[in-house]
Amino acid sequence: MLYHLGKAILNHESLAYKACLMYCINPASVFFSVAYSESMFAWITFTGMQRFDGNTRNGSFWFAVTTSIRANGLINMGYLWHRKLGEYIRLVPGLRGLSLKDKIMVGNVVFWMICTIPLVLYSILCIAPFLLVQYFAYTQFCTGNKADGIPQNILEYGTARGYTIMGVGPPPLWCKWTIPLSYSHVQNSHWDVGFLRYFEVKQVPNFLLASPMIVICMLTALRYISKNLKYSITLGLGRKSYIHKKSDASVPDLKDTGFDSEKCLPYVLHMLAMVIFGFFFMHIQVVTRFIASSCPVIYWYVAMVTSSQEELEEKQTNRYNIFAQVKDKQQSDLQEPEESAFDNLLTRQLRNIHNNSFSINLILLYFSIYFIIGTVLHCNFLPWT
Known about the structure:
The protein is mainly α. The protein is built from 18 helices and no strands. Helix 4 runs antiparallel to helix 5 (about 55-70), helix 5 packs parallel to helix 7 (about 100-140) and helix 6 runs antiparallel to helix 7. The chain is globular, with a radius of gyration of 24 Å. Mean pLDDT is about 85; it is low at about 240-250 and about 325-340.
């Protein structure tokens, strides 16, 4: 799905292909290989993004599914808000020539019909799974349910460690909150998540562990913003996609192909929001998989900076296996489905690191080392990202 999303947004098949290869060895790869929620969350998230590119309603449905898997799927609503606000702003010039009274009346109608009502409905759809889970927790812990069916050893284990067990003792304090969210209680009381709470000397190793991913995110944003400065400052709002005034020399044309494509901006904004929130509020070591499972733009960026223009101009995929290298159409028609599956842009770079630049090797080493060490540590029940 990341491949199809990349083709739709980048309009560049080879770059989308290379991004998929980088995803396969991403620094949090072990969490995408074991029985964990990250792989499903990533698949649903990328599916939602790909569907949302063509259909707001379809994409919103998939974003709703992400919130049923992980709470951070709520951030995907930012794509919806960005699109609807942009649609409204682009309609404002159409009010020119009307009287002030008519502008106010027509503007309000347009705002509610085009922006507000659909935005509210789609937002409710996206947030509904999260609220249903919170409601279920409320009914279990706050309405006097008894601890029927809970094995005695589980009760003893939880009681000895001070856990809140439904039907045992008084209802937890969060039940009396104005908005009783068990999620907020768990994050605050059990995970100690909050603004700057992780900024302690003893957490320096974890900050170092997450620093490569944070640096990549910052470089991704800087690269895109530097190439599309005026467009980025306006958050991509107010101008119609792919329609540019050729007479305005002060506004450079935006590309519709590659990493500099204007369609990449919402993904850059999404990544920035997540990395800033993760840096200041979360357990910092989690940022690596937090970003790896949610932000396709980092794969597009590293695919671009680790590939030459000549490599990206080659045909890279075939009808059997998008990860199999194809050098020409005739070979594509004759080869077996799995032929050349281990001969692609990434494997050639890994085999010939002496031919790569220092920056390319640095990225490849980061991905590869975290891929290997993460697998070893996680399989031995040791902490990792």
